[in-house]
Amino acid sequence: MTMTETERQGRMVRLMAVLAPNEGYTLCGLPGVKFMRANAVRPRGKVLYEPCIVIVCQGHKRGYLGDQAFDYHSQQFLVLSVPLPFEGETLRATPAEPLLAISIPIDLQLAAELALAVDEAQSGIAPPAAPRGIMASKLDDALGDAVLRLLQALTCQVETRLLGPGILREILFRVLTGEQGGALRAALAHQSQFGKIGKALRRIHMDYHRQIDVATLAQEAGMSPAAFHASFKAVTMTSPIQYLKTTRLHKARLLMVQDGLTAATASGRVGYESSSQFSREFKRFFGRTPLEEAREMRNLLAQAPGAREGRYVSAQ
User: b/e string for 60-87 if b means 16 or more Cβ within 10 A?
Assistant: First the structure.
């Protein structure tokens, strides 16, 4: 018998209540996969997500990228095909009906392999002319059923280990062949403008603590500085220099919250030569001093111990 959307959501919520019993982040047995729970509305705040798929099982969030706003709520999913800084807020969440979501990192190597296979099987189907770095869509039955099976598998250690990786592969396949697949495939295709910017973003996230100049990034992308700057801003809604600064500030905040580093130590780790300049830019960006922000984030987030640092900054 075919399951209705309401029945599927109900089963997801019941499973998430077991998998994410505490507010904040809860990790699981699959690397990088984490559950998110918020028991109350949260104000608009700055975040920087890695390339990932976020499936909302219950509740309502809103994101802001440049002058664009996008909502993602129950039985919808968000795909970030490139790492993007944006602002987010939780609009609907209570202790009785908390916001519940699952975040799945996009394995770029696996995605590239699947994208190649998909493009070969669907010859003649081109990605959209103007792919977007972030977009929310409704869960269809195939993707929704795969997510439900993943949640069920994650309640059992044996199933997590033996079935989990295969279900993650299926979820990525469903996204690649859905309405957001073109943007993700374009981000993986280095020959496209979107793919070249995606490659530059990955370089920034690997080397943010080193000296990086726009001319070098443009040269590596095979573009003129002017064309690179225009294409970069079209994807991220910000300039390359501002993006690098944002990445460093988010990473410094993460180091202070998760590793307990002082502002002075964190600023040096992320590439600042002057701790006073770091403190000024940090307060201008987050609206609080590094000490105040770190204290506030520790109160808001319940990151589980043992979380591994990824290639990308991820803050909320």
Answer: bbbbebeeeebebbbbbbbbbbbbbbbe
CB crowding 112-126: b at 16 or more within 10 Å, else e: eebbeebbeeeeeee
Starting at the earlier edge strand, list the strands of the sheet with 60-65. 42-49, 84-92, 60-65, 68-73
Strands 76-80 and 99-105: unpaired
In one letter, which amino acid is 117? A
User: Which of these, 156, 130, 168, lies nearest to 52 by C-alpha position?
Assistant: 168
Question: 121-171 pLDDT, tens per residue?
Answer: 765 554 544 556 677 888 899 999 999 999 999 999 999 999 999 999 999
**Global pTM?**
0.77
Which residues face 128 on adjacent strands?
none
